Amino acid sequence: MRLLERSLNGDFKLVSFNDESLPPYAILSHTWIDDQEVTYKELVEGAGQEKSGYDKIRFCGKQAAADGLQYFWVDTCCIDKSAGVELSTAINSMFRWYQRASKCYVYLTDVVVPEEVTDAKAFPITWAEAFRRSRWFTRGWTLQELLAPPCVEFFSKNGKRLGSRISLEQEIHKITKIATEALRGKSLAEFSIVERTSWASQRTTTLKEDRVYCLLGIFGVFLPLIYGEGEKYATLRLREEIERRLASQETGRPLDLFETGY
């Protein structure tokens, strides 16, 4: 796993760690903007600073430092997506990486708090409607990013803290229909397949197969990625893997609980 290390002068560099030597780190959750995200190649070459996506990296590094964390992770530039094996490994590891993070910062590019508001938490009227409509709540990958980390904090585009998964629990429940027990950290394995599937039924992804792949961590399974197989066959493989896992656990639970959404 590669992490970004922020130097005292504000620059960043990538550092590789194995699972046994991972230091405490923060992790970013966000929605992508076409042609504005800083890639792994650009970061290595010192390019991409003119992109709006670079602001997210600066924000994450600055907030991590404020929380006493030297390292942080951003998916756009910490994964070399040109390497197929690395991308597949990363997607299958993503839930665990978010789960292990000390802090998860949700950066909402479509929520802006007026600069004169110094304490956004005290004046939710200035951002609550934009929060409810945020694109972040409609994307497939952000589902696991909401549920996996032990600590999730929400920030506006201009870096103002809006609250946490706990303090905003009721609002998030209304928006997502996710059980409050799940938001409080209850093991996802204790929720039915139907309920977990329903959490993602209205969410979208850029690639059709990702509507299935983004659920791997939610169901605790691993699959090789086959982009081009289509959503139907990806769903079939996911069902088969869940069935295999359930059979190995000898739970006897039926697998016809998959109903709508896929």
How would you characterize this protein structure?
The chain is an alpha/beta fold and 262 residues long. The protein has two domains: 2-186, no CATH class; 187-262, no CATH class. 38% of the residues lie in helices and 13% in strands. The protein contains twelve helices and seven strands. The protein has helices at residues 40-45, 53-66, 75-78, 84-100, 128-132, 142-147, 169-176, 180-183, 193-200, 210-213, 216-219, 230-249, and strands at residues 2-6, 12-16, 25-29, 71-73, 103-108, 152-156, 161-164. Strands 2-1-4-3-5-6-7 form a seven-stranded mixed sheet, sandwiched between helices. The protein starts with a strand and ends in a 13-residue tail after the last helix.
Mean pLDDT: 92
Order of helices and strands: EEEHHEHHEHHEEHHHHHH
Shape: globular
Helical proportion?
25-40%
Strand order of the largest sheet: 2-1-4-3-5-6-7
Rg, rounded, reads 19 Å
Give the strand tally: 7
Which consecutive residue ranges, at least 5 long each, have pLDDT under 50?
A: 254-262
**Tally of separate domains:** 2
Strand content: 5-15%
| Structural class computed from helices and strand pairing | alpha/beta
The number of helical runs is: 12
